[in-house]
Sequence to fold (312 residues):
Amino acid sequence: MSYNILVTGGAGYIGSIMVPELLKQGHHITVLDNFMYKQNSLAHQCNHKNFNVINGDIRLQEVIKPLMAKSDLIIPLAAYVGAPICSKDPVGASTVNKDGIKLMLKLLSKQQRVLMPTTNSAYGSGDENNFCTEESELNPISQYAIEKVEIEKALLEHGQAISFRLATVFGMSIKMRLDLLVNDFVYRAVNDRFVVLFESHFKRNYLHVRDVARVFIHGIENFDSMKGEIYNVGLSDTNISKKELCERIQKYLPEFIFLEEELGKDPDQRNYIVSNEKIEKTGFKTTFSLDDGIQELIKGYQMIKQSGYSNV
Fold:
């Protein structure tokens, strides 16, 4: 069955991978994005008859309301994602991540479906064993995680919704992000050959950007049996520390050196092991491993150079 789907922030890191996959499934896709990064990551979809794109702001009711009225299903990807950008512009982050989503929820009809990415960073440091399931107590540390927790609670009051608590995403995208941990460490390994680790034993879970697209398609196809629930989504065999991540990268880039700094403190205090058993019981399995991602990033970084502060 095909749907009219509104994807906010659909020209971003995740949306640039997800939107083409949704089009392949036969859905009619409208992307609403403010193109704040001046990206043209969906230009290659403009010839598709089922693709429409709007340059606009999700915070404006006059923009979002008519688009929602035409939609069967909404995927709200528009966000200031991660702690650093939220710290840089806390007002902008709050109005997009919280106020914009609350406006969307207010405008929803009872029949409209929502599949939303939230974050497993809300677990903070987990329990005494750092182990987390969907029932674990939340301990959000950053503004980003705190507001995602608030929105997730409001989202689930709308019965026709699924929340995907995504692990730290990695992998190549047409609209690339270099700030995500795996993407960042591989970039440093390729270009600098070294990285300094603070609190290198801190663990977290990871997920390939293409598996993000796949889990949303899985949610669309199995919506009736999955609705009203929260699902962790990540690689079950990859709850690993930052040091272990560097060792994995070193397999492919032997000249990469990582130094463990004992005195410093990581500003990102996340440290947890996440169970993905619940989503796996619905029949979803990830298909892209951490090693797959590392190898594709190494290739991708032959084409990408972050030269904003370079004189070359």
About this structure: The domain at 4-171+205-233 is CATH 3.40.50.720 (Rossmann fold).
